[in-house]
């Protein structure tokens, strides 16, 4: 019998297997002795340990057929359905309780995970309380409780749970993995490695740990080690889609998009609901000249992350390269109307209008793209009540609300970070830094890192900013946010050699179309006396965005310094002034031109 992929669902396939391949005790093979239910339950538990929910379900159904009471299998059947992602079926086995004494703790833990996945955090806590009453010294129970605390926002409670789990089981793989994940969020990539390595020493064949380790190595730029670890995962679990995805990321970072696409096919659609996978697929297809396929992938990402500006920029490029010019103007019309389009997106749509013959509309969008970016504070929870108060200019009311929330929930990351955002918006960088420091006891995502750097600089503390940036780079040496901040600090201090090294690396590793980066590089090259390199970097920026005031003044200044084409230099500086007014760079460039004979 031939069954095409996608014809049946997983549940139907299991049912068919039960019919076509009868298990012991099913009535077939009467010459064989029935397998004891306890043995089948043991085999199901082993399957669950491997992450194979389907095999566990089959063994448990066989145990039921051989006389096992419902209570003996309920906890494990619930886990089997959780492993398959079938939450409704898992609930039918877990919600009533009634677990046999030997499996009750696991049953309540499985119910707690189910409630967590369903967004019922209080019910999850109640189920965990029942499990804790039975097995208070189980480190893996404390890990699961910590994970629930983390998801519901009680971050300090999660950290305390992780520490207690390690006290109970210093060599427990799950406890070490959770600690490593928390350290990665708080301190960075490098700090997490020892925890993952200790966990792997305790459980060398633990696929989940190996994948966390591989992903962290990859983010640290250790490509060869990442590939080695993922190959080990594939030996332990052939066909593991996460391992192939991590290998595809490494291939894409190396510029081998053909290999990246090939590796993604090995995931066999199992990760298609993961936005990062679809984003990588779209980037690979776009690089390989398949814009239509890339469009489909980027649209899949936006269905889950509708506010992703990076994905919208990539989608705009794909639509333009596919020649769907009219669609480009329609697809991004709402973003443009809400003033939520990036300069790159505005430029792409403007190019579409220009090809369609609507030069007036193209010019309007190019003018908007050329506007200097307004420094906007992107607060945590900006769509919430406090974010709206800030947006409406009610700073004092936002401050009162943020401080009340901070006092009410001091161990929550969002409470401290949002209170810091409000203080920064009110012009109180020292107070903002105090609250940010409390938030970073939990984690320091790139956005919060950038705001902490800004708070240091606003407070007139460049040494504090430098220490923060260097500490971040020690843990995450390839962080683009930290590298850009380091380059900015180097430029401000006159260390042009360091700034040039950083900006050049960024340009060669994905920044070749970053207009602002190229402009900064042009200024650094100028400061080093590299006139030709400065002119080339500025020209590259200007070619990408002719209506950018940054690009216009960078190129105008580079030409003024080189004393070449003084008329063009003066015109570019005048163009930049018309868009942003007088700037020190424009004034310096024109002063240089005044000293050049026949520069008018």
Automatic annotation (TrEMBL):
Entries under SUPFAM superfamilies matching the protein: TPR-like
Q: Which residues form a coiled coil?
A: none
Which keywords does this chain's UniProt record carry?
Answer: TPR repeat
Could you tell me which Pfam families the record lists for this protein? Answer: TPR_14 (PF13428), TPR_16 (PF13432)
Q: Where are the TPR repeats?
A: 139-172
Which superkingdom, per the lineage? Answer: Bacteria
Show the InterPro entries listed in the entry.
Answer: Mbb1-like, TPR-like_helical_dom_sf, TPR_rpt
State the name under which the record lists this protein.
Answer: Tetratricopeptide repeat protein
> What is the protein's species of origin?
Novosphingobium decolorationis
